[in-house]
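New to this. Explain the following:
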Amino acid sequence: MSKPVYTLAEGQPLPNPSLSTTLPTFGGGAVTTLGDTLLIETLTHFNRERIPERVVHAKGSGAWGEFRVTNDISHLTCAKFLNGVGKTSKVLFRSSTTGGEKGSADTVRDVRGFAVKFFTEEGNHDIVGNHVPVFFVRDPVRFPSLNRSHKKHPATGLPDMNMYWDFHCNQPESVHTLMHVFGSRGLPTSVRSMTGFGIHTFKLVGHDGRFRYCKFHFKPVLGFSTMTPDEATRMAGVNADFHNQDLSLAIARGEHPVWKMYIQVMEPEQAETYGRAVFDITKVWPHKDFPLIEVGEMTLNRNPENFFAEIEQAAFSPSNLVPGIAMTPDPMLQARMFAYPDAQRYRLGVNYTQLPPNRAICPVYAPYERDGMATMGRNYGGDPNYVRSTLTPGVFSQSVQEVRHNEWLRSGAVLGFNEILVDDEDFVQPRALWNNVFDEAERRKWVANVTASLEGVLPEIQQATIAMFSRVEPQIGQMMEAQLKGSARL
């Protein structure tokens, strides 16, 4: 096999890519010219080889793999990639911290992103969720503020827990997620031992057009495991890329991580009377009411050949839905369906779907989305770029049914500022987590983790945080008070 010859970007051969063309002067000096195309190409590309990092989920790791159906659910959905035991689909996976920049540590206490792109015969389907089952806020206009409060102070450029706790004390619907994040789950040992949740409620649409509501879950076959705060802090200094390295080396060794994928299913008739938890992403569906149904398993078996090309340029969005899976009236989901593709257009350009990690494996014919920066291929040639043309070679799909169904509106609903006010219901599930899931050791660790983050925070914000968690269970506030007083004496 012949070795590749060095060339310029447009293919012209080079005798030596490490030498500029110069006109020497005395004393070791030289004059360069605009005629040195190699030098100009090298410097200008270097100035442009960074793209904007993701505003959230900037630091991550990823790999390629396969999803295989282990339990046929064709009676629930017509989505072809979920129909038939043994059916396989290529997948691209990315895990990430949420708040940190690209150079931040993998082992910080944070919600992890858990994103899977399924390459199917009906287009790409993305499940873009987190490693905990709930989220901080339910009104999408608060989402940018949530993320800013977790980042660095605009004046100092430093992390600031006053911002963090000030935000959450004034948006106490976040209390359920905070219970998860400051417990052991907030410091997963590795990507391979991390749970994944689609967070939102979706619709499964059957071959007959009937729909049901569902949630997606991923459970690691390796089992879920966590670090201690001391271990996580030490590893952040020793190896900031620990999770990325662990995943990459495990796949290289042939220890391919596997997750079982499950769904929960809710009938529309149940949803009418079930309450806010149907679409409120600060709530879970209890397994006793809606047991997990196994669907398949995801195996990661191939590392990227080039991290930038395949993982940094990967673009996930909950708007990528195949026939048989549909959106619901969850305002956070609807906002993300706009915001995520918009972020990709900003980071990667309007034609980001043509990049290798995002390119569908099925035929794509979208002649109304053409031109723009970084267009690849023939750009549909002379095919009409307007709808309802008699000259187009395109035809309508015969396999996709129009999904028609009702959405239940609240009686007397009006368009306006319809805030779901925080009430006792928002503290029921966090209370159950504290009383029924946490053991005494986990409760003590949780209090220690929260109070450690409150050291140095303004006294009034400390008290507001204690008051918020006291609404979950008075014992929590009492334990926090005692711990903070003890820390102050030290």
In short: The chain has three domains: 1-49, 60-354, 438-489.
